[in-house]
Amino acid sequence: LAGAGAERPQVVSHVQQELNYTVFDCKWVPRSARLLCLGSAARGTGLVQLYELHGARLELLREIEKSKPIKCGTFGATSLQQRYLATGDFDGNLNIWNLEAPEIPVYSVKGHKEIINSIDGVGGLGIGEGAPEIVTGSRDGTVKVWDPRQKDTPVANMEPVQGESKRDCWTVAFGNAYNQEERVVCAGYDNGDIKLFDLKTMSLRWETNIKNGVCSVEFDRKDINMNKLVATTLEGKFHVFDMRTQHPTKGFASVSEKAQKSTIWQVRHLPQNRDVFMTSGGSGSLHLWKYEYPAQRSKKDSEGSEMGVAGSVSLLQNVTLSTQPISSLDWSPDKKGLCVCGAFDQTVRVLIVTKLNKI
Amino acid sequence: MPVWLRERSWRQTLSAVYLSLPLRGARATPGSIFCSEQYLKVSIPPFLFEAILFAPIDDTNSTAKIGNGNIFFTLYKKEPAMWDSLTLANADKEKLQYLRENAVLKAHEKAKEETEAKKITKQEHKNYALEATMKLEEAERKRIEDLKEKERQKVAKELELWKNQQKDADEYKSIQKRGELHQEIEPLKERKKETKNKTRIPNEGTSKTKLKTTKGCHGSCSMFSQNLKEEQLPAPRSAATIKVNFTPRVFPTALRESRIAEEEEWLHKQAEAQRVINSDLSELEDLKEDEKNPDWLKDKGNKMFAMGNYLGAVNAYNLAVRLNNKLPLLYLNRAACHLKLRNLHKAVEDSSKALELLTPPVPDNENARVKAHVRRGTAFCQLELYTEGLQDYEAALKINPKNKNIEKDAEKIRHLIQGTVQSS
């Protein structure tokens, strides 16, 4: 599959950096060649490290230590000038940090009773319109949306009905933020539930169950009318939903693919091409996929209501980088093909995917 | 007795002997010729020719040509000398024998050596082939590596370029920002200066206020620019909560939570229960075949219950229990009868026994468990033990939350309890 001379995209490993702590999330700092690694040190404290890409190596610019291990972070809700980092930690705290002055957070709230598994931000970085908002999903089964201008209380709270047993929320993602009012949050849970919450009408817009625990969900673009949603699960499967047409009973059409034998930890769409995405697996491998649209994206069913037609997914390239799961993945929004991934073997790798222009 | 071939003709030179042997119709193959240094034998049964040569020859280089009804030997002498005759004249039997054996031995050794030599050459050839293929593969790999390396370098260069671009862009932006800020501050500063001059505050005051104003200026400047931005953003959303339900656990659940083990246990238990027959044969001898079958008795009991004959139903169930005391449904149904008969304590007992037998709790025996809880709850309530009753109702609700009747009854009991608490 990995023919060197062929016209397929190649995944070139550019830099490999050994760390002495467990890295849970890695993110590019927008508009720069710097990246952040977030994780947990052996003594149970949280670490944020800022690296800069220098030729063939990473140079550590700054290291920030916090009291609780950090699980996830995002730049999605901050402006390009400020570039504040929002993090969720193992204790359920949501903090927003100014990396130039990281002693005291710009915003802090104990949002959840248990670890915040996933975080996403929208409305910042000059992308899209509307208020900047951050969504967090936690093991306590709730999904909360925060506005950095409102202290202490979330602007939206998706919680289980009283008395119901809760399921861990493993992943959250914003989408459909194409104007000032519209916004949706998609949440994936450990029992295979996927729920789509509409924040404009404050209601549950769609839910489904894909049998295996949902590790990662992402819309192909946050700031457009929702187009595609990819959800990855345990046991190596992922589903691509066509979000343009919602059928009243059948919901959204989807195509699913079983890629690897192990859990697919992350899916990330290429910021420069929304039909290309990369999945990272529990076996330490990365797969690059391309989605092809069907000839007709919607058709009428027997009763005359519109239903979507799912397309197909083809594998462009795959590469195995590690023996441990690659738990985090981020494309650089500024340089096409540049991405960083962090694995549980305490290594962070900067990769370059070539020939993406030819797809 | 072999037929000796005696006719032969030969001639010689200094270095070689040419021997021609007519075969008289016999067909010769290479296998029929045996030659060693001083011994030559041709054996084509029944024909036989042998010769003890005058002097040793070089048997490896000598040749024999078979054709035209005869064999033509070209024997190269070891020592170039003219032979008196082809064969040794005075060869006695022993010498002959000795020579023959020697010859055979020598031939064997030679054969062995040859095979050895062959093996060695074969091995060498193999090694050579292996090395050649390895070299080829190495070359291929290197080629791929080189391609990859080139890609990497190209890409690294592009990255450096882009990075430098970024740095420049950043610097440019920061310069711009500073410029803008200055521009904003300038008119404000001038305005402040004017006001100060107008108010005529003493010098100290002026310096203090000057400092204050510049600080305040900076603060207001940044706030100024930020205010503009905030006006463009919509206000924070009004807080709201969305309640969610999770997909109920249906067997098989998300595989990690599979209840397979428990289900298996339950099925096993049921199978065992069916087989148990704790019968006391002496008493039951006069019963009909049907009446010895607990299931048949259970059906009978159910029918009688449906018709309102509660005592009869109880009797049927009693007999069934005597036959097989491991079937939970018998106790369950008997409990219902006791409820109707207002034997409340017995109803509680039977429901409890049924619940005991309905372990492990699996979706299969959900309905039965719900019924058991409800019946026991009812019995408790009728005994005015409302708290225990409520506990049972809540347990039933937990198993089957969708049952409206149970909910209503549970509500009623709660009210009752609250009523009694208030009054007391």
From TrEMBL, chain A:
Spell out the InterPro entries in the cross-references. Answer: WD40/YVTN_repeat-like_dom_sf, WD40_PAC1, WD40_repeat_dom_sf, WD40_rpt
Question: Which keywords accompany this UniProt record?
Answer: Apoptosis, Cytoplasm, Repeat, WD repeat
Q: Does the keyword Cytoplasm apply?
A: yes
Return the WD repeat spans.
Answer: 134-147
| Superkingdom in the source lineage | Eukaryota
Any Pfam family the entry gives = WD40
One GO BP: apoptotic process
Under the cellular component aspect of Gene Ontology, which terms does the record hold? Answer: dynein axonemal particle
Q: Where in the cell is it found?
A: Dynein axonemal particle
Q: What does this protein do?
A: Key assembly factor specifically required for the stability of axonemal dynein heavy chains in cytoplasm.
Name under which the protein is recorded: Dynein axonemal assembly factor 10
TrEMBL record, chain B:
GO annotation terms (biological process):
determination of left/right symmetry; epithelial cilium movement involved in extracellular fluid movement; heart development; inner dynein arm assembly; nervous system development; outer dynein arm assembly
Superkingdom of this entry's organism? Eukaryota
Q: Where is this region: Disordered?
A: 192-216
| Protein location | Cell projection, Neuron projection; Dynein axonemal particle; Nucleus
Q: Which UniProt keywords apply?
A: Cell projection, Coiled coil, Cytoplasm, Neurogenesis, Nucleus, Repeat, TPR repeat
Instruction: Name the CDD domains for this protein.
Output: p23_DYX1C1_like (cd06469)
Molecular-function GO terms, alphabetical: nuclear estrogen receptor binding
Q: Which GO terms describe its cellular component?
A: dynein axonemal particle; extracellular region; neuron projection; nucleus
- Keyword presence, Nucleus: yes
Name where the TPR repeats lie: 370-403
Q: Where is the CS domain?
A: 3-87
Asked whether the UniProt record includes Cytoplasm among its keywords, one would answer yes
Q: Where is the signal peptide?
A: none
Per the database entry, which stretches of residues form a coiled coil?
122-154
Which InterPro entries does the annotation name? Answer: CS_dom (IPR007052), CS_DYX1C1 (IPR037894), Dynein_assembly_factor_4 (IPR052004), HSP20-like_chaperone (IPR008978), TPR-like_helical_dom_sf (IPR011990), TPR_rpt (IPR019734)
Query: Which PANTHER family would you find in this protein's record?
Result: DYNEIN ASSEMBLY FACTOR 4, AXONEMAL, DYNEIN AXONEMAL ASSEMBLY FACTOR 4
* Name of the molecule in the record: Dynein axonemal assembly factor 4
